Amino acid sequence: HAWYGVVESLAEGVPEKQLAELKRRCEQAGTPEEPRVATHFYRSEKPEEVKAAAATPLEQDAEEILRKLPSGWNDKVASLAKWQERKGELEKLTELCRKFPVVKYEGGYQAVQATLCRLLKTDANAQVQGEAAQVAGLLAQRIGKEFEKHTRQILPLLMVKLREKNAGLLRHVTKAVDEILTFCPSEAGFDCLKSALGDKNPAAKKEGCLAVSRALKTEGLVGAPVWEKVAKSLLGAVRAVAVDPDKALREVATATLSQIISTLGIAGEAWVKAEV
Q: Of 137, 134, 140, 143, whose CA–CA distance to 62 is shortest?
């Protein structure tokens, strides 16, 4: 396999059995031929609609959906005493995001970002946190690059939630992370993802590796300027996980590492040898 020499340079210190497994997976990965597209969706979403909205945003009619929310919505959400009421208010924004493929708001998104951050950080109910994560992901998907600066405040809070044992909350969080990295890709976003890869919690490390793997399958990331900036550090972060004492975690990291190497292509071999 063309990458064997590079694999060995990346995996210095990795036991022979793990190195052999890494080589095997590199060979199996090959070179992807199909376009990289988003592959992680909610059950209620139709993949073709999500892809269409992402592919042709300028051809859609943008809606100022935040104006459709009740007056004082941001102050009201966090102040409600019952978790069902807080979740219900968030669901109003969720439904608006799903109804309109492209979102804009002349007043800016600072207030809604602050509301989502507050709920993700302080709300004790997993369902409310999950709904807040879902809204964050949908806003990233519907708004796009204009929402990127706001994701810099949201992503660190989502990274903490990758440790969650609550399956429902974790599902919403990983989906939100995927949407942010897909529709608002940035160097800061991937740097934030490295915090999960370096977390002491094995679950967070695992979800960090899986998030990298899914991000590499999205259309347009590999070869983009942002990927060129973050590839080196992500290789190092994932390689560190690949020598973790936990066998299951090593296997996930090894698969992700081989995927990164494979998607770089032969043209990136010299760069990898020089930089890693």
A: 143
